[in-house]
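LOG
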Amino acid sequence: MRVVTELHDVAYLIERVEPQLLELGGDKAMESPETLKVLQGIDLAVQKSRGLAEFIDTITADVSNDWKVDMTTALSLVKLAEMQKALGDGLRHGHSQPLSKAAGDFDFF
């Protein structure tokens, strides 16, 4: 439930940025295609955060306290060499939005 609460909080905080950007940009802000892309990105981030929160909330409501998760199989399938190669080539697999123009992004690995 902590993750669900945090995701809802993140969505709320992100959502608060949008009016501030519009206030800073003034009336002309809505005329810029780049500004519209940023605002759409903010809306998408809010939707994804809330969607993940609802998904996790629904899953946790259906999980029995008696269930145990065996990570052995999953961990045996992860090969560090493959992970290093995937992280090292700069490609971002699995993202729904292209990140090629993002400034200042980096990997922790």
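LOG (cont.) second protein
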Amino acid sequence: MSTVTATPAALRLIAEIVADHGPVMFHQSGGCCDGSSPMCYAQGDFRLGERDVRLGEIGGAPFYISGSQAEAWKHTDLIIDVVPGRGGMFSLDNGREERFLTRSEICSVEGPTPL
């Protein structure tokens, strides 16, 4: 199962957003528009689906991913970072001239012993 962590820059931006909006949560849907951008919402402003999976927390904020993306990325650790730019339309990082970005690192997966 994959895990989620955050860079110091992401933790700083989360703290700024929480100071402005209160507790937040993240969702990584893998959608067509902002597929590599995790969306940041005020807690309670995003309705989770039955298949959404909680990967963990970053900066005290719960981080969810769609079930299909969790399956596709099950051997990948997600690293939430910050880059210059505009956030997703409904994400709380929008308008701050920097946005969250998901990076990944392949986990070690043990397979069959080579012949």
